[in-house]
Amino acid sequence: MAKTRYGQKRSNPVFRWVYLILFAFTSIWLVTSIITKKSPLEVLSSFFSAIPNPRIQNQEYLIIQKDSIITSLEEKLEACQGKGSYKKGMIIVDSETMNLRSEPSLVSNVVMRIPANSEVEVMFYDTKTYYLNGKAGKWCKIRYAGTEGWAWGNFIQEF
User: Fold this and answer.
1) CA-CA distance, 110 to 1, in Å (whole number)?
2) Residue 117 · residue 90 · CB < 8 Å
3) Are the C-beta atoms of residues 155 and 98 closer than 8 Å to each other?
4) Whole-model pTM?
């Protein structure tokens, strides 16, 4: 047993190894930050970002899976809509023009005025039925002269 003098504490050899290992890791960490010209916090964060996280990998897999579902649904929608080839229609109104609106509502902004008896592309009809002057009808998404908007479907005659 080693003799200790008054005021000296005996140190545990296990703690010596722990201190040595901590000193070595800290030294490597600081030298790495000097070599890479990054702050020690940046070195530490880049080290931990390199460790794979199973939760993040699972989320990335779910995103990829949902993206493929969205792509599949978009392809099916294009097939249903005829891949950009829309039905043709004619504007039939009693006045000289009809309003093309930004939304399917009488209070929405008027995008442009379409002359009567003009040919338009009928993209699709709204699913809800509305009443205008006591007559049931649906709003219709149309394209005229490269501009898309909404028009009252009862004023469009498809051909």
Assistant:
1) 98
2) yes
3) yes
4) 0.49
